Amino acid sequence: MFQSRVFASILKRNKGASIINNAITNLRGTKTTPFNHLRDIHQQQNPSSRSFLYGFKSLSKGHNCQYVPSSTRKMSTVAASVGSESKEGLRLLVNGGPKAQKMVGIWLFGSAAWVFSMVILGGVTRLTRSGLSMTDWKFTGGLPPLSNEDWLIEFEKYKQSPEYKIVNKGMNVEDFKFIYWMEYAHRMWGRGLGIIFALPFSLFLRKGYVTVRLGAKLCGLFALGAGQGLIGWWMVKSGLEEPASEYAQPRVSPYRLAAHLTSAFVIYSGLFWTALSVVMPEPPAESLAWVRGAAKVKRLALPVSLIVGVTAVSGAFVAGNDAGHAFNTFPKMGDTWIPDDIFDLKPVIRNFFENTSTVQVICLYNLSILEL
């Protein structure tokens, strides 16, 4: 029944009835080749029916196949090839499949969050004026005082520092314990980050998850983290030195404080960016949509990142110079919008790092720009 309907359709398109009859004879068992002749003639008259005749020939032979137009087959092939190229073209930083990619991503995001918490803890340590309570430093750290004798020994060390003599003279042991614990927690929290970073890194290396490109980035970040401890002690040591005059309060160098904070931001940004690169691999450079999207983001991200960076660094100089006490009004600085003494120091470049008025203006007005 199906074959008769098909032949009726063909008869409407072709006027050569005798040729069709020869084709029917061939289908019934004749081993001549008029069907091929019919196919050639019909294709010349109606090329679009070529794929149909191929499907019909298969049906006539008893094959259980499904007719798929050639155009559809070509589109499917192209789509499949494009999909495979997109998947294979991704610049993966992790071997081992999606599971390994997820594990490494979670580890890196967790490390970035740890660094962020360290920045907050460091700010609290500075606000409580606890940073100079520990007068020595060891790379691997050590146990805190566990007995009254140990506490008295540490307290005697602190009494020799300029901060005790000028700022905290008369402090008792109990008050000293508070500032000591704050600084101790800040230092040990940093050492804990080193362990949390190094152990999973070693495990992922052993399992072969880490590519060469990712391994180079992570080694660089680990080196920065180790150096951060040295920068921190370099900063604290500047606050243990005698101030320039007896009227000046002891404080850490604003340059070293800015270096310490900037290093922390670099480590945090590097970890966060690397984590994003792991969970969202970069498409190939030939991806036009990705290039256009990245260009749009870049136009906004670069200026915003620059303003945020300048604001953060200027904030470190505000803290290092105690510039926050210079003016307690905003947006005006006292009675004027811009203080008169912002360029009093010579050479002029010093004003951007040591002049309390200048560093406060830079920090506050940059914050205003970000809020807008």
How would you sum up this structure, described in words?
Its cofactor is heme b. The chain is mainly α and 372 residues long. The chain is built from 14 helices and no strands. The protein has helices at residues 2-13, 17-27, 34-45, 50-60, 70-89, 97-127, 148-159, 162-166, 173-207, 212-239, 254-279, 288-320, 351-354, 356-371. The radius of gyration is 38 Å and the shape is flat. It starts with a helix and ends with a helix.
The major pleated sheet works out as: none
- Helical run tally: 14
Helix-and-strand structural type: mainly alpha
Shape label? flat
Q: How many DSSP E strands?
A: 0
Oligomer: single chain
Proportion in helices = 55-70%
Mean pLDDT: 76
Q: What does the radius of gyration come to? A: 38 Å
Membrane topology: Multi-pass membrane protein
Subcellular location: Membrane
InterPro entries: COX15/CtaA_fam (IPR003780), HemeA_Synthase_type2 (IPR023754)
Catalytic activity: Fe(II)-heme o + 2 A + H2O = Fe(II)-heme a + 2 AH2
Short description:
It is found in: Membrane. By secondary structure, the protein is mainly alpha-helical. It contains 14 helices and no strands.
